[in-house]
Amino acid sequence: MKKLVMLMLALMLAGVTMAQAYDADVIVIGSGLAGHAATYSALEQGAKVLWIEKNPVLGGSTAIATGTFAAAETELQKERGIQDSRELFIQDINRIGHEKADQNILRAFVEKATAVWEWFVRAGLPVDVKRGPFIDPSHSPYSVPRTYVPSPNKSSIYTDLLYQKMQQYKDRLTILLNTKAEHLVVEQGRVTGVLTISDKGTVTYRAKAIILATGGYGSNREMIRQYSPKYSEVMTVTLPFATGDGHRMAKEVGAELVNMGYICAYFGGMPATPGKYAIGFGDLTSGAADAWKGDIWVNKRGERFINEDDSDEDPREVALNEQPDLESVIIFDQGMVDFNKRFPISNFEKRLAENPYAVKKADTLEELCAAFGLPVDQVRREVAATNADYAAGRVDRFGKKPAVPFSKGPWYGILNRGVIFMTQGGVKTDIGMRVLDSKGRWIPGLYAAGEVQGTSQWGGYGLAGGTGNAPPLVFGMEAGRNAASEAKLLK
Asked: Which helix (H) or strand (E) holds 411?
């Protein structure tokens, strides 16, 4: 009730009245992949669009993301003789996502992804045909090659192309940068506008339809603790502006938030200090996985919990998500460094000097365990078991056949925690991207697309190759079309 009263007072101060004229047919909030796709699609349908972005530049998280795109039954697959189907794509996503996707949303994505990919190709998207279609090794693998790579491999290549295409409609497009959307406006049960804060002060803009394309909440630690307390200590590579604004605004007007307990923490990254959660891509420890042999990973109890050499990312991520604080220590010795002819992460010696919290070296295993606070007796047992399995040439209890034993010091350890790449919880929509309330009813005038929907709606509990870019583009296009169509029906 207090929030509602504050919202009503804010709207009154902003001068919201029923007599106000519309500032646009469609307002799009956010300018990542979904925001660009929605804006272009609405313009293409003839709508007058007001595009609101809280940052000083357009682009959102495309600034740091790679550009892979997944789709089935494409022309490139057919040219390469790759047998694929949309049904197989759906099966793969369900396997990777542990059957937790909204099946209607998943099917809508898969059925539309091919046409959207081909549209980009026809529009001039440069494709790296030497690299794709391929099976992306960064995630749990598809059953057939269906991941494509633009050239250069950057997510921003899609937004750049969409922005270029928008210029033919620039007379119907207004862009507001450095403008934060704070609250949605509801009039007679319909979302009709957004209250914004900028250097102009508090201003309300009205439109016949509003599209939330505001991204995720990976950098909102309070929201993570509120909805996903199990993941309170995970780290994130998301940019600072990924704060869940759309989630909050949608909930204020009655939208249902789904799967907010999901965070599929990626394996993994090195913290710099206690309580510091933001890290860079250079701090990831993924290279210490199946590409490096001999190491063991133990949790806070000193126990191994996974086949460290499994080529499938999903079992590692699932197992890591079950460990206390989603934390492990990667343990190896000098004999393994000699065997692999390198350290498991880049710039190891520099990190040893600059990040003693996460990267440690010791003369003995006992000293290493003490440095990390690990129970030495349990870690000794794990090391002894690994050496025994190696000596016997047998597969261990996790399905791993050790490639090299622990043989000589010094000993090394890397503290590793789960990392957020995207957030899985979000605003519930139907297949037309219309936002739904807790009873499954459409909230008139309100749409959502992209990570604000939560990646679980199309991907379940998992990370599948090429689905960081493809669904936001597919659903952004869908939201723009449908919002523009609705606007045409209103006077």
From this structure: strand 411-420
